[in-house]
Design goal:
single chain; mainly alpha; elongated
């Protein structure tokens, strides 16, 4: 009898060998599939529609009483796309290896966003993973719908603004200098507004390139400075104190969420690390998580930190 080879989702080498022996096969060599496939799975990206459908199916199977490993096996069988099956097989292999679901999703950051992974971790801690997955699916659908509406509303004004800016720049650079020659030959006094336009045209022709270079350099310097924790913390504190921006950043999970306050704060902390008001919000989140006790109310905990907006009374933090 000749030798043959094949592949199976065994998860571990020992389990794969046992499964082969149960089939009355003598394994000569058992190993993981090539690293190229694993690398492709880790770099895989899921669209909003695929992730929403996957979350709803996941929530339905979990609510039916299946374990995470069995739900992943069922999703692999039901999936019609090979990249999705490869990704789910990678997640399942991490689960079989002993990792939690949130830790397994951390291995695939391109496919599962930070908010998604943090919410799954909070759902695991609270024991409400099916409801959290269902709410994640609703959140993804609403976010995608809002994103499409925003893009549709901004495309036309942005296009008009770009065309208008290009036309005005062309007028200032090529048309106004020719008109200036006509005015100079007539030797008449010009209105102040016309003289201002002529001066602006000359400034754009002489210093326009330098101004663009300076603005680009300042933007790059600011972006590089944001990588430093101290500078970014100062910027975030300033943003959180703004009336509208700060109130938007401090918006909490609705009370109907199945995740309790400590889990939601713990989940928001790693999520805000990748957002614009990251360090300040992250520190406030960690402080609120430490402050939560059964005898303390959420409003008191929210008001204890000095980095939240003016809606929450500014008082020194009880943890510092």
């Amino acid at each position: 009898m000749g030798a043959s080879k094949g592949c199976d989702r065994g998860g571990e080498r020992a389990r794969a060998r046992v499964a082969l022996r149960e089939r009355q096969l003598a394994p000569l060599d058992v190993g993981a599939l090539g690293g190229a496939g694993t690398g492709k799975a880790r770099r895989a990206h899921l669209g909003v529609a695929d992730l929403t459908l996957l979350s709803r199916q996941w929530a339905t199977l979990l609510a039916a009483g299946l374990t995470v490993e069995h739900t992943l096996a069922a999703l692999i069988e039901q999936s019609e796309r090979e990249p999705v099956r490869r990704l789910l097989a990678g997640v399942r292999s991490e689960i079989v290896a002993g990792y939690s679901l949130s830790a397994a999703l951390e291995r695939f950051p391109n496919a599962f966003p930070t908010l998604y992974r943090a919410s799954v971790a909070a759902g695991e801690h609270s024991g409400e993973l099916p409801r959290v997955m269902l709410q994640l699916a609703d959140h993804l659908e609403q976010g995608d719908a809002l994103r499409r509406k925003t893009l549709q509303a901004l495309i036309y004004p942005a296009l008009v603004a770009c065309v208008a800016l290009a036309i005005v720049t062309a007028l200032m650079v090529w048309v106004v200098p020719q008109v200036v020659g006509v005015f100079s030959q007539s030797r008449q006094s010009l209105p102040a507004l016309t003289e201002l336009m002529i001066a602006l045209s000359a400034f754009i022709r002489n210093w326009g390139g330098a101004v663009l270079l300076v603005i680009g350099g300042l933007g790059l310097s600011f972006a590089r400075a944001l990588r430093q924790h101290t500078f970014r913390l100062g910027v975030d504190r300033l943003l959180l104190r703004l009336p509208c921006w700060g109130a938007t950043c401090a918006r909490w999970t609705p009370p109907a969420s199945p995740v309790r306050w400590p889990s939601s704060w713990a989940a928001a902390s790693p999520c805000w690390q990748h957002s614009k008001p990251a360090p300040a919000s992250c520190n406030a989140c960690r402080c609120a998580t430490r402050c939560v006790r059964p005898a303390r109310k959420c409003a008191r905990v929210s008001a204890c930190h000095a980095r939240w907006p003016r809606a929450a009374a500014f008082r020194p933090c009880c943890c510092t």
